[in-house]
Amino acid sequence: MNGFNRRRAALCLLVLTLGLLCAVTAAGTLLAGQAMVTDFTRKNLPPCVPFLFGTDWMGRDMLSRTLTGLSLSIRIGLLTAAVSAGIALLVGACSALLGGWVDGALSWFVDLVMGIPHILLVILISLAFGKGFAGVVAGVALSHWTSLARVVRGEVLQVRAMPYVQVAEKLGLSRWAILRRHLLPHLLPQFLTGLVLLFPHAILHEASVTFLGFGLPPEQPAIGVILSESMGYLTTGKWWLAVFPGLSLVGVVVLFALLADQLRRLLDPASVHE
Amino acid sequence: MSLEGKNLSFAYRRQGRVLEKLSLTLEPGERVGLTGASGRGKTTLCRLLAGYERPDRGEVLLDGRPLGRWRGLCPVQMIWQHPETAVDPLLRLRDTLSEAGGVEAGLLEALHIQPGWLDRYPAELSGGELQRFCIARALTPGVRYLLCDEMTAMLDPITQAQIWKLLLEQAEGRRLGLLIVSHDSSLLQRLCTRVQTL
Amino acid sequence: MQPVLEVRDLSISFTQYQGGTRRRVLPVIRRLSLTVTAGEVVAVVGSSGSGKSLLAHGILGILPYNSQMEGELIYQGQPLTPQRAARLRGREIALVPQGVTYLDPLMQVGPQLRRGRRDAGARAESRAVLERYGLGRETEERYPFELSGGMARRVLIASAALQAPKLLIADEPTPGLDARAAGRILGHFRELAQEGAGVLLITHDLELALTIAHRVAVFYAGETVEEAFAADFPAGRLRHPYTQALWNALPGNGFTPISGTQPGPGEEGPGCPFAPRCPRRAADCAGDIPLIEAAGGRVRCLHPEGGKTP
């Protein structure tokens, strides 16, 4: 029974996606210099052997630009998802543990944030923080924590009402000990899955905001910038300028979704023995 | 020196009044049986006396002091009908037991808890095996009253007899006060010094 | 007479992960055999966690995804395949489940009993069946959360009885009920048996089982160790030492426990799983123990009660 099984498959897939994402990030960082090199002797080349993704109107290598853009996206995704998840944990846990009017106020605030269209909120916050890197990170981080906060609140409320937590209280365990021993371990699987699921959201929203011109500055080879610039050249038949960066972005997002799926398969009690 | 519930009234938000001006006193060394039809509030009474729930009116006194004022280990412990919910599914039973401070090795042996079970998770043990852990945990030094809510209703007769035999010895030796909730009149007859019907 | 249900050498095991990615197979039910004939109440008695609920799920074809079943299930003379079970369950084969959670919380009792039928005939039927179990007309309009434990239990029985089942399986139908309510519920099962159904009652409560069952199958560590008539218990005609120990441990009898604990799934050594606790154990108990006919019942023991002590 110890050969290949679903759980091992999930673990392998998890490691593989993680490795692939790390590789993209590393490659993008290393190729950052090359992505800016202009060479007018090789401009507007369609995909060929030395330039797999082609080159643009300034002769820049699109493969390096795409990889650099993706690595930027992934790094921003990591940062914003981490900040978002932190806010979610804080708000959700406070809401559930303090109760009363604090819970009421926080729940109202969560509903309020959820009620505003996502992209609008990201743009507004990004503008308020002066666009650029700081604007994008703040915009995405401050708008994506709401649903995870709800999950955290629900989970904490549920675990806290369990008899084993009540018994621990009566045995004289401190609040801190109960939090550490009983609440956090139950929260972790939900939280981790939620966190990984935040990445693709964050990445897509970063790209959209940048594409619309409210995010990263045009000199940075971000995917949003690449796509928005390519718009002007699509009508002249230079399809490779949009297709490859776009597909790569979709690929990275799918990888993250796959990662979250495997993680859930390993942690979710409903499928744990599959 | 006793556990007293005085004029306890309690209502759940949706179901209306469950208890109305009920009083009950439990002395050390006493074993009081509590019986009555379903829905009469036997479990609710246990929850009030153990301090899990506050009464709408009336008070619970331990040695004349309100039970809510005790800090640290509560001398009144409740043992639940379904042990599966009373132990954390993500903790090994060794860690669950350690929450009660140390438990004497002799006690584990007397409860037929095998050393191998300590390293397992609750899902790997049966209800009867988990209930033994819940009892070991509740018998930590400092506990003086045990509220046993249908403690052995889900267990087979042999396990039931084993568990009660040990608990009666412990209660005798440590002058514990026991409140025993059960539908089984022959069980209450075996165990109790007096029986009260709700 | 052809039995309604025949179970021959049924085994059910689970595949579980243990410590990360290693998988192991846990046998929960081993070599279970029993028969239920029409008009008869057969009780399966075993302690919690002995896997007896899985028997019900196995018969109905609703085992969890990580389980495997072996052995033979024969219903009305024909093999009971999962496909056939799916066709028959809820109609000829009815389950009275353990928990009230099996009722749809968002549906009133009446429509739930009628299962989508809206004609006058269905209405009359559902009203009649509720009345039969002492539930008034107003019950039809109630939602499950508005029912007390006893009422919900009776609704579940009404729902099963409405289909006039040939085989009724009741899984722990009485916990949480006081003795009178439990007695009433069990009385309903006996009634259904008198009307011609075969009733399989799965419970941990030996005393209650003895009040209505004709025959009792005793379950220990995943095996049937004895099939006895209910009358054998008070008459002292028990065959297996474990059954005898169960009887002696009842509060109404001796309340005397034996020591030790039941081995969990996968912990049984070779041979008789009861041997380590058995007062009658002998050297040959470590070998294979067949289920043998003894005094009208069956027993899985080489040195049964009543015989010579080894």
Structural notes for this entry:
The complex is a heterotrimer of chains A (274), B (198) and C (310). By secondary structure, chain A is mainly alpha-helical. Chain A is built from 11 helices and no strands. In chain A, helix 3 packs across helix 6 and helix 3 (62-98) runs parallel beside helix 11 (240-267). Chain B is 31% helix and 26% strand. The model of chain B has no long low-confidence stretch (mean pLDDT 89). The mean pLDDT of chain C is 86. Helices cover 27% and strands 25% of the residues of chain C. Chain C has helices spanning 52-60, 82-88, 109-114, 120-132, 149-161, 179-194, 206-212, 232-235, 241-249, and strands at 5-18, 22-36, 41-45, 67-75, 78-79, 93-96, 167-171, 198-203, 215-220, 223-229, 292-294, 297-299. With 310 residues, chain C is of the alpha/beta class. Chain C has a single domain, classed as P-loop containing nucleotide triphosphate hydrolases (Rossmann fold). The chains are: A mainly alpha (274), B alpha/beta (198), C alpha/beta (310). Chains in contact: A-B, A-C, B-C.
In short:
The complex is a heterotrimer of chains A (274), B (198) and C (310). Chain A is mainly alpha-helical and 274 residues long. Chain A has helices spanning 6-30, 32-36, 62-98, 100-115, 118-128, 132-141, 146-160, 163-170, 175-212, 223-234, 240-267.
Summary tags:
heterotrimer; A: 274 residues; mainly alpha; elongated; C: 310 residues; Rossmann fold; 8-stranded mixed beta sheet; 9 helices; 12 strands; 27% helix
Fold blueprint:
The complex is a heterotrimer of chains A (274), B (198) and C (310).
Chain A lengths: L5 H25 L1 H5 L25 H37 L1 H16 L2 H11 L3 H10 L4 H15 L2 H8 L4 H38 L10 H12 L5 H28 L7
Helix pairs in contact in A: 1-3, 1-11, 3-4, 3-6, 3-7, 3-9, 3-11, 4-7, 5-6, 6-9, 7-9, 9-10, 9-11, 10-11
Chain B lengths: L2 E10 L3 E11 L4 E5 L6 H8 L7 E6 L2 E2 L9 E4 L3 H4 L6 H6 L6 H6 L16 H12 L6 E5 L7 H18 L2 E5 L3 H7 L2 E4 L1
Parallel strand pairs in B: 3-8, 3-9, 6-7, 7-8
Antiparallel strand pairs in B: 1-2, 1-4, 4-5
Chain C lengths: L4 E14 L3 E15 L4 E5 L6 H9 L6 E9 L2 E2 L2 H7 L4 E4 L12 H6 L5 H13 L16 H13 L5 E5 L7 H16 L3 E6 L2 H7 L2 E6 L2 E7 L2 H4 L5 H9 L42 E3 L2 E3 L11
Parallel strand pairs in C: 3-8, 3-9, 6-7, 7-8
Antiparallel strand pairs in C: 1-2, 1-4, 4-5, 9-10, 10-12, 11-12
